[in-house]
């Protein structure tokens, strides 16, 4: 249990709770859930510019990272088709993957097919005849917010010139003074109710990258937990439910930074069904599957298929649903590409 590890090494409850957020973020788990300690390790095992455990913002927003990858691929001769939805994987008589069919009827033939979609989408939608058990859902709805001024927190008020302070340039955790708060928020969600005092990770990328917002304004990204993918009583995630949860989050932020709600000029609320519909994330799962110990390593996405090769010859998984799981690191894609190249040489 993460809680046992934190108690062994630290005395400060706010510090333990802050560290615990990285053990439950993106996971339907609490600090008391067995295996939660690994999720913390997963979030700090990488490095940035040689500094271990560090994270960073992408200049120009996360889309700039996708564009950089696309530019590198195009420079090597890749052809990229955006806004071209794949209908299904083409299979030969021998069951071998032979390319993909697009929704507009176009067929793209290939000896190998790599899928960055989740295992659920890949096997249950793109290849309907294959049946696998979906992974447990993870439901942390994000909420991009546009504000006309920097939030001013009671604990560290803004300077008179309104310039970003050090805490504006990093992740800010709210409702995390005690690990029990995280557990209570988790418990509410397991009963079908959005957390009444959700864990909030607040980032202001425009504090470091001013080009993301007009002068004097800022973009605030809110990553919150927990919300169930299906509400109690089968209630829909309609506009009323969506706004009610967002109002709860904003009320919490207001308690830490008075005036925050008045500074909001726009917000985009994404619930678990929104994440599934827009981005193809089953259950709103940002990692394409739970990061619990029973769904990692040789069991990711399923036993016997952890080596990136799928049950369909010539079809490979290269997304977060493959080893080593979610995160902006590209390890699954790199590993899958190496396996695919080995098989290609044998063809």
Automatic annotation (TrEMBL):
SUPFAM superfamilies: FAD/NAD(P)-binding domain (SSF51905). InterPro entries: FAD/NAD-bd_sf (IPR036188). This is Pyridine nucleotide-disulfide oxidoreductase domain-containing protein 2. Belongs to the carotenoid/retinoid oxidoreductase family. It comes from the Eukaryota. Signal peptide: none annotated.
């Amino acid at each position: 249990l993460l809680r046992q590890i934190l108690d062994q090494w630290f005395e400060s409850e706010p510090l333990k709770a802050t560290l615990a957020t990285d053990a439950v973020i993106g996971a339907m788990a609490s600090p008391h859930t067995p295996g939660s300690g690994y999720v913390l390790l997963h979030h700090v095992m990488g490095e940035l510019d040689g500094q271990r455990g560090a994270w960073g913002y992408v200049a120009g927003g996360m889309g700039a990272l996708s564009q950089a990858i696309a530019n590198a691929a195009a420079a090597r001769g890749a052809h990229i088709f955006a806004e071209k939805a794949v209908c299904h994987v083409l299979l030969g008589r021998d069951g071998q993957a032979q390319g993909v069919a697009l929704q507009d009827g176009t067929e793209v033939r290939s000896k190998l097919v790599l899928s960055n979609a989740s295992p659920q989408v890949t096997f249950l939608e793109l290849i309907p005849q294959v049946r696998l058990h979906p992974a447990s859902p993870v439901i942390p709805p994000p909420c991009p917010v546009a504000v006309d001024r920097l939030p001013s927190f009671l604990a560290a008020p803004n300077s008179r010139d309104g310039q970003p302070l050090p805490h504006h340039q990093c992740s800010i955790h709210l409702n995390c003074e005690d690990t029990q708060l995280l557990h209570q928020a988790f418990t509410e969600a397991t009963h079908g109710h959005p957390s009444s005092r959700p864990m909030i990770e607040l980032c202001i990328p425009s504090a470091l990258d001013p080009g993301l917002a007009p002068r004097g304004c800022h973009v605030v990204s809110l990553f919150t937990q927990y919300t169930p993918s299906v509400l109690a009583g089968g209630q829909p995630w309609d506009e009323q439910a969506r706004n009610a949860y967002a109002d709860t989050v904003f009320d919490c932020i207001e308690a830490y930074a008075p005036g925050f709600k008045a500074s909001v000029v726009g917000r985009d609320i994404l619930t678990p069904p929104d994440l599934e519909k827009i981005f193809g994330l089953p259950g709103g799962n940002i990692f394409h599957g739970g990061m619990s110990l029973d769904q990692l390593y040789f069991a990711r996405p399923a036993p016997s298929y952890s080596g990136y090769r799928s049950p369909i010859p010539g079809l490979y998984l290269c997304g977060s649903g493959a080893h080593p799981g979610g995160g902006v690191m590209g390890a699954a894609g790199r590993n899958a590409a190496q396996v695919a190249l080995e098989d290609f040489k044998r063809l």
